[in-house]
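Good morning,

Attaching, inline, the backbone tokens for the sequence recovery test we're adding to the shared suite. The designed sequence is right after.
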């Protein structure tokens, strides 16, 4: 039986937020599957940075956007949650106003089902606000909550979110219990059987994410990828290029983001054929990888092909120059491999300021000196260090240690998992030390 279904990408409530080419790709995959089964779909994006109605909100400044499709979100100051009352930073709602949200929700008509996604665990207040408003307008519609927060903080979501149903993990595997999918169902083990995400539901398609894989073969102690995905699965690189060409030709999309946890893994069979095919088809496109690529996979050939194929924003996961911690956190990279990789990138044509390298700050028991040494090491190689504040995530290998050292009750309150708080700071790495380390990265010579 056909149902009317409303999909909602909720607000971010936080001290800071920036649109690094973000789009709710998981929710839009669901939209495509549901539409192929005949269901009537509406979509509300609370994080739409270019909503046409925002011009009627004079108290909110129009955000600065970049030509590559990234930039600031519109924001509105709001009261901090009581648990964060003493933290000396302004708290904001990022995205469209509640007035616009209510208008879109009302104009869409009463849905049978409302699906709400979620991202960071500590962004749940924006999720709760969206659920609360939807409940007020449509008290008889069933509300389903999924996404990262729902998966990682399932009990918290079930107790406090106000949703009727909380689903965990990959949403496609649960929706058959909620609505009729008798006409079409993808093969969960074959990502190429999935329809393209329903990006046509976006009001502006200035850029879109492209999925080349799900999951990651590594098991780093600070990462939740294995908790959010059912194993490591990859797409056919030729079919990935087919999708890029589709969006480029039919919708004029020129900027694509890749958030995959392991885009470069097995590059001989995946990334290299994909990059060569992009060049063969002479696609006039650019790529942005803000999530952190694997430095170990960077070779002379890979770096050259990435540069030629239009990979403009490249970020890499390095985390630390401490050899001991590199081993303890998963053995993803070594200093020698990092040195070689950055050399390849420089030789391919990337400038120092183009090569962003993430350094984790605020790990349990971490010394400020370790972060300083990591920053100095990356700068010495001709790359740009980028501080990535550690967020303790329920279920990761470092979770129990994080609980034991954090001055906050991160176990019971996801708000305290916010990396802005530096939740596992100590006298060995205070907030003041962290600020000085941030200044060190800003002092990098951007040649």
């Amino acid at each position: 039986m056909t149902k009317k279904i409303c999909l909602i990408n909720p607000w971010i409530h936080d001290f800071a937020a920036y649109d690094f080419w973000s789009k709710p790709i998981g929710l839009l995959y669901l939209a495509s599957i549901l539409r192929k089964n005949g269901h009537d779909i509406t979509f509300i994006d609370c994080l739409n940075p270019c909503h046409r109605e925002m011009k009627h909100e004079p108290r909110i400044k129009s955000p600065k956007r970049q030509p590559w499709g990234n930039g600031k979100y519109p924001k509105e100051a709001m009261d901090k949650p009581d648990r964060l009352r003493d933290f000396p930073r302004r708290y904001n709602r990022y995205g469209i106003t509640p007035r616009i949200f209510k208008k879109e929700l009302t104009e869409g008509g009463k849905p049978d089902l409302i699906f709400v996604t979620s991202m960071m665990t500590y962004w749940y207040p924006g999720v709760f606000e969206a659920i609360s408003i939807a409940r007020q307008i449509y008290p008889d519609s069933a509300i389903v909550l999924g996404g990262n927060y729902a998966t990682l903080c399932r009990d918290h979501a079930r107790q406090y979110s106000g949703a009727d149903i909380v689903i965990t993990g990959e949403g496609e595997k649960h929706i058959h219990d909620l609505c009729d999918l008798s006409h079409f169902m993808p093969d969960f083990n074959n990502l190429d059987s999935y329809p393209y995400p329903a990006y046509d539901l976006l009001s502006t398609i200035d850029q879109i994410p492209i999925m080349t894989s799900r999951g990651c073969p590594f098991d780093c102690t600070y990462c939740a990828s294995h908790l959010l995905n059912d194993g490591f699965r990859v797409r056919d690189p030729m079919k990935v290029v087919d999708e890029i060409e589709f969006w480029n030709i039919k919708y004029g999309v020129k900027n694509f983001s890749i958030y995959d946890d392991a885009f470069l893994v097995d590059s001989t069979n995946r990334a290299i054929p994909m990059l060569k095919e992009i060049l063969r088809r002479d696609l006039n496109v650019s790529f942005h990888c803000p999530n952190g690529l694997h430095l170990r996979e960077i070779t002379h050939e890979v770096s050259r092909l990435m540069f030629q194929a239009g990979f403009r924003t490249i970020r890499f996961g390095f985390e630390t120059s401490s050899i001991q911690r590199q081993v303890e956190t998963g053995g993803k990279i070594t200093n020698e491999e990092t040195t070689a990789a950055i050399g390849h990138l420089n030789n391919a044509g990337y400038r120092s300021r183009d090569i962003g390298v993430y350094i984790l700050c605020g790990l349990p028991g971490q010394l400020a000196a370790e972060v300083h040494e990591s920053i100095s090491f990356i700068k010495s190689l001709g790359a740009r260090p980028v501080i990535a504040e550690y967020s303790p995530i329920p279920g990761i290998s470092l979770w129990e240690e994080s609980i034991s050292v954090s001055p906050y009750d991160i176990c019971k309150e996801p708000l305290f998992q916010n990396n802005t708080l530096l939740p596992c700071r100590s006298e060995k790495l205070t907030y003041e030390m962290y600020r000085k380390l941030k200044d060190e990265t800003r002092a990098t010579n951007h040649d």
